[in-house]
Design a protein that fits this description.
Number of strands: 0
Distance between the termini: 46 Å
Shape: flat
Number of domains: 1
Length: about 100
């Protein structure tokens, strides 16, 4: 049985099942195929966009994931919750150079 851990967030190593997690394979059946199909459709749409639109969507996706991760861990930025529009401007103004 998949347990719902939406109660007070704990670190993974604080879970009672750590490190011997179990899952219900039947409950997940088909999820991988659905994910792969949806991902393929999404990639096809992104590849049809202009280069600038591809850059914009990549930035938005990375920021959304960073904000979700910070939220899960209970982090805030300067005492306020992280917000997409606050971070996006900073990332666009100060882009990281790709590794060489």
């Amino acid at each position: 049985m998949i347990k719902d851990y939406n109660h007070a967030m704990e670190w993974i190593w604080q879970q009672p099942e750590w490190p011997d997690f179990q899952y219900d394979a039947l409950a997940l059946k088909g999820c991988d195929a659905e994910f792969i199909a949806t991902s393929g459709r999404l990639m096809g749409r992104i590849e049809g966009m202009t280069e600038q639109s591809q850059i914009d969507i990549s930035i938005d996706l990375m920021l959304s994931e960073a904000i979700k991760t910070s939220s899960i861990e209970g982090e805030a930025w300067i005492g306020i919750p992280l917000e997409h529009h606050c971070l996006r401007g900073s990332v666009v103004k100060h882009p990281l150079s790709p590794p060489t």
